[in-house]
Amino acid sequence: MEKRNKFSGSIGFVLAAAGSAVGLGNIWRFPNLAAKNGGGLFLVVYLILALSFGFTLLITEVSIGRKTNQSSLTAYGKLNKKFGWLGVFSAIVPFLILPYYCIVGGWVLKYAVVFITGNGTKAAQDGYFVEFISDPKVAIAFDFIFLLATCFVIYRGVNKGIESLSKILMPVLLVIVVGIAIFSLTIKNEETGVTGLEGLKYYVVPNVEGFKLSDYCRVIMDAMGQLFYSISVAMGIMVTYGSYFKKEDNLIKSVNRIEIFDTIVAFLAGVMIIPAVYVFMGKEGMTGGAGLVFMVIPKVFQSMGGIGQFVGALFFLMVLFAALTSSISVLEAVVSGMIDKFGTSRKKAVISEGIIALIIGIIICFGYKAKSIFYMEVDLPNGAKGQQLLDVVDYLANNIFMPVVAIGTCILIGWVVKPKTVIDEASINGEKFGRKKLFTAMITVIAPILLTLLLLISLGVISFD
Questions:
Q1: What DSSP assignment string belongs to 33-71?
Q2: Banded model confidence at residue 208, pLDDT cuts 50, 70, 90
Q3: Does the record bear Lyase in its keywords (predicted)?
Q4: Which of 296, 314, 345, 363 is the most exposed place for a label (fewest CB within 10 A)?
Q5: Residue 180: alpha-carbon gap to chain centroid
Q6: How far apart (Å, rounded) are the C-alpha atoms in residues 283 and 416?
């Protein structure tokens, strides 16, 4: 078995973990949820949950990884043999996510190339996105390039690969995000007179007009769901990264920094997107998912005139960086598990998983071609209509396996090995565990209840509509 590498210090760990947390969910999901859930109300609820629910899950997983010195596939079983199944479930999540995440990463790469080469107006045309993803040859080509880049970084290892890339991309990403956010506030629609500052007001000022009790409940669950996916928990990543975190480094301070970084980028993503969409397309332009990034945003850049081409290139370059730092963490969770469980070399693990991900990715890409045997349209239990194969795999990973893993983790730490296991590991060097009582209450009672509600909503058992 290969000697386990460690991050060179807390900065390397924080940037790598933040790189995993700051992904497509921050960019195409957070702004839409904030816009439809009362603006500032959603932001306040999200912040409260980040400091309680998010902190609890994040510090738990990082502590498990550092304590056991194992990736998630074997870490849970090392804490308690009866919970070895939890490690298997947590390893299934990144295995499912990697193929389709690289496909979406390929879409981002395609749009980045289009804007960088000065062809952004093409991307703004109706039907461009659907035409692109419906052509398996082109979609697979970009999927392959993105997957290859991901594999190359992981092949180079923890220090030369993950840490080195994160130290470069994360500061650059933050600079671009701040720059576009500031620019978004300065724009104005000359025809309507609407300004970016009005869009910012729509984003940050609470708007609860007509809200019923069910609407407030939806805001809480949407904020929790977004946070749950945003901080990269329940998918083996933070356990794996925790196993690379040195014993002598301050774990609590590092987790706090990850929280801050992820929350700031999520908020700034809204400042980037919502004012710009509001100025040129109004409230009607607010949407989420791929439609926001690949259909709405290009039209916004086109409406800006000449400067829109440049801003669009920067935007998609930023999204590409966010997607890449997230995809490498997903692959590392799989590769590290193979190394720990089967003693596989890093080289063999990367190559074998890369081939599997490419094959699955090819099948998913053909799922968008109407005459393909892999084409499908299925209504999901959470209310999503007419979804393709990619959405089905995404639903299984994000809405079934991840909540189950998180609930199981809460039961293991909260009731079996007890919260003291995490508290002692996190404060092993004498660090003060400032939210000890809150952590204990969250991991034993509150978080399992909230996660169970989230799972029931995902299964369509509960609805706030």
A1: HHHHTTTHHHHHHHHHHIIIIIHHHHHHHHHHHHHHTS-
A2: confident
A3: no
A4: 345
A5: 20
A6: 48
Evaluate if residue 188 carries a pLDDT over 90: yes
Of 294 and 290, the one with more pLDDT: 294
CA atoms within 13 A on the CB side of 340: 28
Q: Using CA atoms, how far apart are residues 413 and 79, in angstroms rounded to an integer?
A: 9
pTM beyond 0.70: yes
Q: Which residues pair with 415 in a beta bridge?
A: none
- Domains annotated for the chain, with CATH where assigned, are 10-458 (1.10.4160.10)
Cα(44)–Cα(41) distance, integer angstroms: 5
Strand partners, 88: none
Given a contact cutoff of 8 angstroms between Cβ atoms, the answer to whether 242 and 63 are in contact is: yes
Rounded Cα distance, 340 and 181, in Å: 42
- Which residues pair with residue 378 across a beta bridge? 387
CA 422 to CA 179: how far, in whole Å?
Answer: 39
Which pair of structure tokens corresponds to residue 312?
Answer: 């669009």
Residue 188, helix vs strand vs coil? strand
Distance CA 263, CA 248 (A): 26
